[in-house]
């Protein structure tokens, strides 16, 4: 643990130095002989992975967990409630975290790898950069790509934005280049030369499959673009992606360190209050609980064995229940006024696989890749192939969460009895299975928001439990239109003030209601 965070400290120093070398017109800094002016690529990999997780993905997940109704706050006033009721402003800082703290490390990793003749570091940098660009564009739409920091030139403070269609092209280009780099045998320094590959310990094949998996994800987002969606290419990418348990691209938190060594859903992300009602999220949502207690399509009662691995029952009576988004604890379960005591709900923090101190934070998983393949096969009328990929995706996630084989087999038997084979002969019913399983397997991942928007927040897909929050932001959203859902985020204040011509209309009324390019049917 000490070694890892010593390296992160070194990367922060080096990143600052390298970033400032392109800002000499703004800063007058004397050279310090005790500080390096550059560091090798193998010393930068740990920082690129760490900031992709902690600065970017965490910041892009925190409020989205409420938008996607994974979790609920206990309060009816205060800032914790804002995300849950869609009260977003230009103070949402994912943009700044990604552009200032995260992506410069990926860019520098690419530049250093190229200079040193280390293509595997180039591949890692391009894979992480593609992931970060993908997370950004999927929340904002148009973003800065071509005019961004390139590791050599002076920073452009008023960069030109790329349209989302262009961003998606650049993401695929970066991933193609990363795969070529990983295939290059002329690499001088192993990825884990200094212990910096904290994700794959130098396994280049897993990095390559990580890039292929992301290719499948971002191609699959284009399901509403009939001229661009290519199911066969998605299937090919998925088959070149993760193909077994233990390949997931994820950040492993550490035990016994400082608070920032712990998973943010457990501690430093707003979960340190002695009284759980004051934490950012108090408990899981009733929507999520309902998904775990009913089978798709028929809504037959069946308790998913993962429920006990993800959340805890209420201490008061041992039942699983959640809060409806926007109601708070005072509203009770479903707004009935019942179950308004803290002990009537299992807490969100430290409740299971995703919210313990050492819970890993996944970027993309084997289970997601199989479910992506299932969707692509379903859309290409390969019902049996879709069902097989779906089954493996579900079972892979169950294995990951430690569900015993007997319980996995019983769950699949219940699906078969419920008619899953027949359901996959219908696009909507098949998608209901796939998207509900993706919701479960991607718990707290911002990728879920992409799926929900692509599926138009459909109750045919997610079931009758998916409803807009109570106490919704009626300044922007029509209280009487249940089909009007949040679509994107507002650009950050700093970017709006400095580069407003590129942003255009950044009002909440426009940004929150306007679908992104990939969500506009052709």
TrEMBL record:
SUPFAM superfamilies hit by this protein: TPR-like (SSF48452)
Keywords: Lipoprotein
Pfam family, any one: SusD-like_2
Source taxon at top rank: Bacteria
UniProt name for this protein: SusD/RagB family nutrient-binding outer membrane lipoprotein
